Structures are given as structure tokens and as C-alpha cells.
TrEMBL record:
<feature type="domain" description="Cell wall-active antibiotics response LiaF-like C-terminal">
    <location>
        <begin position="154"/>
        <end position="265"/>
    </location>
</feature>
<dbReference type="InterPro" id="IPR047793">
    <property type="entry name" value="LiaF_C"/>
</dbReference>
<dbReference type="GO" id="GO:0016020">
    <property type="term" value="C:membrane"/>
</dbReference>
<dbReference type="Pfam" id="PF09922">
    <property type="entry name" value="LiaF-like_C"/>
</dbReference>
<feature type="transmembrane region" description="Helical">
    <location>
        <begin position="35"/>
        <end position="53"/>
    </location>
</feature>
<feature type="domain" description="LiaF transmembrane">
    <location>
        <begin position="8"/>
        <end position="111"/>
    </location>
</feature>
<dbReference type="InterPro" id="IPR016975">
    <property type="entry name" value="Cell_wall_LiaF"/>
</dbReference>
<dbReference type="InterPro" id="IPR024425">
    <property type="entry name" value="LiaF-like_C"/>
</dbReference>
<dbReference type="Pfam" id="PF22570">
    <property type="entry name" value="LiaF-TM"/>
</dbReference>
<dbReference type="InterPro" id="IPR054331">
    <property type="entry name" value="LiaF_TM"/>
</dbReference>
<feature type="transmembrane region" description="Helical">
    <location>
        <begin position="62"/>
        <end position="78"/>
    </location>
</feature>
<feature type="transmembrane region" description="Helical">
    <location>
        <begin position="84"/>
        <end position="104"/>
    </location>
</feature>
<protein>
    <recommendedName>
        <fullName>Cell wall-active antibiotics response LiaF-like C-terminal domain-containing protein</fullName>
    </recommendedName>
</protein>
<keyword id="KW-0472">Membrane</keyword>
<keyword id="KW-0812">Transmembrane</keyword>
<keyword id="KW-1133">Transmembrane helix</keyword>
Amino acid sequence: MKTLNQKFIAALLVLLGIVLLSINLGVISLEIKEFFVAFYPLFIVLLGLKLLIDKLTKGSEVLFLSLFLLALGSLLCLDRLNIIVFQFSMIWKLWPLLIVYIGIQMFLKKRPFHVEIDWTYNADDEDGISFSNDDDVIGSHKERNRDSKKVFTVGEMKMNKQNWSVEPLKLRNVVGDYYFDFTKAYIPDKETPIHIKGMVADIKMLIPEDLPVKIDAVVKAGQINLFGEETRGKNCRMVYESSNYEMATRKVYIVLDVKVGDVRIDKV
């Protein structure tokens, strides 16, 4: 059964489609067309307000859509009032609303976001990650078998439990803090790839002296501290490879790619 919201939105879309089709076919007169062009932003604002009220009163999952429609409609209304210049074709400029949405969600949610990661590693696969609202998982990861999926909180991930298992990891995120203590880890007798890519991230790692590693760290804006050597500013990159890496069977290959952030890797 369709909810009242679904019916309202469906009716609005049908009405909008009919009006646009009539304009394109010349059925609607120029005066009506000008009236529609002048006032349709107000309907977008009203729809955004309705969705926002539904979010606040009924807990519906439409926060981003309501914020987007409110911003879009408000900017178009300001354009019609000749306060600013904003056309519908400039809608792509509203992408920072995604960052605003993530920040608001972090404030409002009692439990953190989670990112779901497929631990079946495939070098040709760039994806395999999806967002989840699993309320049963907080803090550290769920222990399952190697070919299953594991869930981490977006915002913070700590791998520092005693004998935590090092598995192939490929992670993409928007914002996150990461801490890996390989001195406490069980590391299998093979090369294990660890790939982390993010927009904003603070990454810290502890590497045991006897563990052969190969590291490629890139930070577009921020700093990298790799075994005491440091670089900071824009387009930072540091690489490192243990002298016995190629001959070793038990080793870790680490690739870090961060737009903005801080990377620190130490040996202990």
C-alpha cells in the first residue's frame, strides 16, 4: 500500500511532467509558461519543507533529499527575485550539500554509520563497499570467516586487539580515523594487501621491526610521517620497501591515498 507521501510525490511528478510536456508542445500559452517558470521554485521549497517535517516528526529517511530540495528551491527563488543568479543548469554546484548531510547525520544519529567491506580480495575490483545501518555492530569489527563481509564504523576504525587477523583489505571512505597496530596482529605467511582511499582521513600505523613492508602513501593536502621521515604541504608522497621484501613470504603491502589528512607510520 502506498503511503500518503508516495502519493503526494507521485502526483507532483505527474503534474510537473504534464506541464513540461505541454510547454514543449506549445499547448500552454507564453503567459502561463512564464508564470510556471517564475513560481515552480516555490513548489520545490514546499516539497523540501514537507519532507523535512516528515523527517523530524515521523523519522523518515529523506533528510538529504529534503535539504537538497530546500537549497535548490531557495536559490531558484532568490534568482527570481533578482537577488542572486542561479539557474537550474547550475544544480551541480550543490554537491557540498553531501558533506553537510554527513555532518548532520553524525550529530543526529545515536549510533555511527557503518561501511560494509567485502573481504574477498580481488586486485581488479575497485568497489565492493556499501553503506549499512547495522545497529548490532559498534566499535570493532565482526569476526567471521575470511570470505565473509565485515563491518566497520565510518568515522573511526581501530585494529589493535590482541591477535587480530590481518586480511586483504580494500576500503574507501568519505571521512575517517584509522589506527592499525600490526605488532598485535596475526599476519599470515603471504603478501597481504591493505588499500585505504579516502577524502578526509587520519591514519596511524605501528609496524613491527621484523615485518617486511612495502608502502606507498599519498596525501593531496596534509602531511606524511613515515618512519621518522616527514613531508607536508600539497601533493605529498612517500614510498618505502623493506630490503628483504621481495624474498619474504610473510609481508604486508600498504597503499594509502588521501585527499586531505595526516598519515603516520612508525616502527616499534
